[in-house]
Amino acid sequence: MAFPNTDPTQTNSWKKLQEHFNTVKNVQMKTMFAEDPERANKFTIKWDDFYLDFSKNRITEETFKLLLELANDVKLKEAINSQFSGEIINKTEGRAVLHTALRAPKDADFKINGVNVMPEIYAVKEKIESFTTEVVTGSKKGYTGKAFTDVVNIGIGGSDLGPAMVVDTLQYYKNHLNTHFVSNVDGDHVNEVIKKLNPETTLFVIVSKTFTTQETLSNANTLKTWFLNSAPENAIAKHFVAVSTNIENVKTFGIDANNVFPMWDWVGGRFSLWSAVGLTISLAIGYDNFNSLLKGANKMDVHFKNEDLNRNIPVVLALISTWYNNFFGAESEAVIPYSQYLNQFATYLQQAIMESNGKSVDRNGNPVSYQTGAVIWGEPGTNSQHAFFQLIHQGTKLIPADFIGFGKSLHGNQDHQDKLTSNFLAQTEALLNGKTKAEVVAEGTKESVVPFKVFPGNKPTNTLYINKLTPESLGKLIAMYEHKIFVQGVIWNIFSYDQFGVELGKQLASKILQEFDGNDNAKHDASTTNLLQHYKNLRTTK
Ligand code: F6P
User: Fold this and answer.
1) Alpha carbon nearest to ligand 1 atom 13, residue
2) pLDDT per position as a tens digit, 66-112
3) Do the domains at 8-73+307-492 and 128-288 have one common CATH topology?
4) What pairing do the DSSP bridges indicate for beta strands 332-338 and 401-406?
5) Which of 473, 527, 505, 478 is nearest to 100 (CA)?
6) In 91-224, where do the E strands start and end?
7) Pairing of strands 332-338, 375-377
8) How many A from CA of 159 to the centre of ligand 1?
9) In the CATH hierarchy, which fold is given to the domain comprising 8-73+307-492?
10) Cross-strand pairs, 384
11) CATH architecture observed for domain 128-288
12) Is the pTM here over 0.90, yes or no?
């Protein structure tokens, strides 16, 4: 089986979509709703505890049909099978992409080069489980015989954002352990965390797939030095564990081989929270909850792999997003969760989506002639209503938005939940219908102000309603976006699983770092030369 390699713009469906776009680009959604009482039902998918209403989009039945044709033309089903069968689809790095295996049942069959990876996955899961139990119950102790109270996750990018987002989102399910995340090489970050720690009762989890990342190693070394100010050298074995593929570098850092949780090169950093990279999640919410998160993701994997494309949630979301991105020219997409718990969700998605699909070279090595990954941003409602919603409602830009809500409040505060939900529903209704001049006038508005109070409407949204925020439903939600990323990568014919775009800045930073202490032979542009000199001056002043 070969991973498909199709220029989407050369497909029949793409050409038909271009023509079709001209006929529908000005159609008003509210007219389509008025003309078809079944529209909402036709464009709704109910699956498990998910309810996806995608009817408030600028699509007709014909649009949907053509988008599904596009999925077939780029051989999406074959691509999905290639991914799940462990094919080397991350060709530029020569790797398979099997984060789905991490959440599969023990008897699943995921092979790399003919070898089933499930036994190694489950060996690591067992290690995570027993380690979690020991730390949470307090049977594992620090160097002075006290139980652990605090866990510090040291990592960046995929080794930070996923675990940090999940721990924050599932804080309702958390145990007594205090969790901290140190990521930025900005020393003020690590120092603020240190202020909260007691070396006798703190466990450090160093997470780095490569174990070469400047930020993570700098923070790990700073924390080790701080720890050794009061603890003896042999206490490191009790207080420091690592998650990595690079066992040699971990040992050089001074971590005992027994304290290493392995991961694999067939798991991309931004898709790795399901592996031992999620150790801090397991510590924070307990292994059973961590496992429920994985089970939820697996349910979404099964849905994605087996469901027909027209009822397949990640596929439908990817197709609609492509419609705006490539035909309407939308530059960005907003993700608005109506849950304060999902405060970090958009930040997490920014790496997952933009590091994956922010590419401009196709799978043949040629520059693409079309748009790829959108800019992703968002904040929870209702806070965001009082911040950037003005621009979504009345600005000049088209910003498709995913509204994500939960039916139940975890603390059972029905009064707040009703108010939250009324906002959740009202915003997508307002974005759909807008407000006409006649309606504004009918409200008795002063004539000179009327134009400013008109809302154009016709702003597209998806509404994803989930019964309740649980580890399992969060697992489904994250996996849903992971698969959306995959589908769009297939459509755009790009490699979604490498990230060479982050390298150049890293290389230049390491050169510039050497120049601070005198080695300033490097040539820079005039702006950078001035800024460097400015910093050197500041560095030497008190
Ligand atoms: O930012 C680039 C990147 O390679 C991410 O893809 C990755 O998640 C992050 O750095 C951290 O890498 P590592 O886990 O190897 O420290």
Assistant:
1) 208
2) 999 999 999 999 999 999 999 999 999 999 999 999 999 999 999 99
3) yes
4) parallel
5) 478
6) 111-112, 115-116, 150-154, 178-182, 202-207
7) parallel
8) 7
9) Rossmann fold (3.40.50)
10) none
11) 3-Layer(aba) Sandwich (3.40)
12) yes
- Which residue among 92, 159, 217, 357 is best mutated to probe the pocket of ligand 1, counting the most ligand atoms within 8 A of its Cβ? 159
Could you identify the atom of ligand 1 that is nearest to the CA of residue 269?
Answer: 8
**Ligand 1, CB within 6 Å, residue ranges:** 156-159, 208-210, 213, 216, 269-270, 355, 499, 502
The count of C-alpha atoms lying within 13 angstroms of the C-alpha of 439, restricted to the half-sphere facing its C-beta, is 10
Q: For ligand 1, atom 5, which residue shows the shortest CA distance?
A: 157
| 336 Cβ contact list (under 8 Å, min separation 6) | 378, 379, 380, 381, 384, 401, 402, 403, 404, 427
For residue 214, pLDDT over 70 is answered with yes
Ligand 1 centroid to residue 269 C-alpha, Å: 6
Residue nearest to atom 10 of ligand 1 (CA): 157
Q: Give the residue, by CA position, lying nearest to ligand 1 atom 16.
A: 208
pLDDT mean over 404-422: 98
Cβ–Cβ under 8 Å, residues 412 and 469? no
Which tokens in the block code for residue 81? 């099978």
Contact 201, 148 (CB under 8 A): yes
Q: Delimit the domains of the chain by residue range.
A: 8-73+307-492, 128-288, 504-540
Q: State the catalytic residues.
A: 355, 386, 506
- Using CA atoms, how far residue 219 sits from 229, 251, 275, 288, 385, in Å, is 15, 17, 22, 30, 37
- Nearest Cα to 268, choosing from 259, 277, 260? 277
By the 10 Å C-beta count (0-12 exposed, 13-18 middle, 19+ buried), 51 is classed as middle
